[in-house]
Amino acid sequence: MSTSGSTSGVIYVHSSPSAVCPHVEWALSGALGGRVELRWTAQPAVAGQLRAEHEWTGAAGTAGRLVTALRAWPMLRFEVTEDPSRHVDGERFCYVPGLGLWRARTSANGDIMVTEDQLRTMTALSDSPERFNHRVGEVLGTAWDDALEPFRRAADGAGVRWLHRVG
After folding, report:
1. Would you tell me how many other CB atoms lie within 10 Å of the CB of residue 102?
2. pTM, whole model, 2 decimals?
3. Which among 102, 91, 83 is positioned nearest to 147, based on CA atoms?
4. Hey, which residues does 115 pair with through a beta bridge?
5. 41 and 47 Cβ atoms separated by less than 8 Å
6. Cβ neighbours, 10 Å, residue 7
7. For 52-109, how does the pLDDT look when each residue is reduced to its tens digit (9 = 90+)?
8. Cβ(67)–Cβ(24) under 8 Å?
């Protein structure tokens, strides 16, 4: 990926223990080359956790540096987006404990871009429609979206529906 040109994006820290918050700000400041002060608010989806958002501007490829900085704390849940810029696709990264990191290229309107090689591989390795659908879900980050959705909704002020397995 080229690092020429300027772009922007958003960092969503969906959940962080309060003790880690100053370290997150310090790490993001280092990745962005300037002081970052986040406005932390309660994350209703997990008691005792905080959340924050930050819009950033920087060179193409900055999202990758931000993700590298945030991965130092494996208990965080976060997303980092980078808007497309001249000659460079956008990117979206999601991190969820237990799932790890997911990354995809994005188009100008934010859609996840699936390459020809990815489609060929999914087709070649899928022996049933169900397996193909599963592989499509992997490429689209469905598991990460499912895991992060309660944290996104809670951030919007919507109520959180707690699901409990019975039996």
Report:
1. 20
2. 0.85
3. 102
4. none
5. no
6. 20
7. 999 999 999 999 999 999 999 999 999 999 999 888 899 999 999 999 999 999 988 8
8. no
Nearest CA among 36, 38, 42, 39 for reference residue 17: 42
In degrees rounded to 5, what are phi and psi of residue 65? -65, -40
Residues 6+ apart with CB under 8 A from 41: 50, 51, 52
The confidence score (pLDDT) of residue 4 equals 57
Q: What is the pLDDT of residue 44?
A: 94
Q: What end-to-end distance do the CA atoms of the chain give, in Å?
A: 49
- Determine the Cα–Cα distance for residues 93 and 17; give it in Å rounded to an integer: 20
What is the C-alpha R_g of the chain? 17
DSSP per-residue letters across 48-60: TEEEEEEEEEEET
What are the helix (H) ranges across the chain? 21-32, 62-70, 116-125, 129-140, 142-155
Model pLDDT for residues 24-61, shown as the tens digit of each residue: 999 999 999 999 999 999 999 999 999 999 999 999 99
**Are 97 and 11 within 8 A, CB to CB?**
no
